[in-house]
Amino acid sequence: MSNKIDHTMSLANPTPAISNQQKIGLGLGLTGLFIVLVGIFNVNLPSATAFLTIGILLLSAGIIIYARALYAHHPEGIKNNHVWTKSVSSRGFWGWAAGVLLTTFYIILYFYPQYLGLGSDGKANTGVVALFDPLSYLLKGQPASQWFVYGTLYTVAILAFGYKFILKYRHNKYQVVRTISVMFFQLGFAFLIPEIMSGLNNAPNAPIPFYDLKNMWPLNYYLFYDWNIKALLNSGVIGTAMLVFGVLTIFVISPVLTYFYGKRWYCSWVCGCGGLAETAGDAFRQLSSKKLSAWKFERWSIHTVLVFAVLMTVATVYTFLGKNPELSIITRNQFTWFVVLFLGAVLSVLLIFKRKSFDKDAKFTAASIFVVMVGMLLLNHFAGEKNVFFFPDHKLQKSYGFLIGAVFSGVVGTGFYPILGNRVWCRFGCPMAAILGIQQRLFSRFRITTNGGQCISCGNCSTYCEMGIDVRSYAQKGQNIVRASCVGCGICSAVCPRGVLKLENGKEEGRINSDAVLLGNDVDLLDLIQQKN
Amino acid sequence: MEHIVIIGNGISGITAARHIRKLSDKQITVVSAETDHFFSRTALMYVYMGHMQWEHIQPYENWFWEKNNIQLRRGYVNEVDTANKKLVLDNYATIHYDKLIIATGSKPNKFGWPGQDLQGVQGLYSAQDLETLEQNTKDINRAVIVGGGLIGIELAEMLRSRNIPVIFLVRETSFWNGVLPSGESEMINKHILEHHIDLRLGANLEEIIADENGRAKAIKIQETGEVIPCELVGLTAGVSPNISFLQESDIETGHGIKVNRHLETNVPDVYAIGDCAEQHEPIGNRRPIEAVWYTGRMMGETVAQTICGNKTPYNPGHWFNSAKFLDIEYQTYGWVHSDLRKPEYEQHFHWMHKDAKKCITVAIHKDSGEFLGINTFGIRMRHETFDQWLTEKRSADYVMEHLKEANFDPEFFAKHEKEILQAYKNQLVTA
Question: Which of A258, A376, A434, B373 gives 20 to 30 Å between its CA and that of B263?
Answer without folding.
Answer: B373
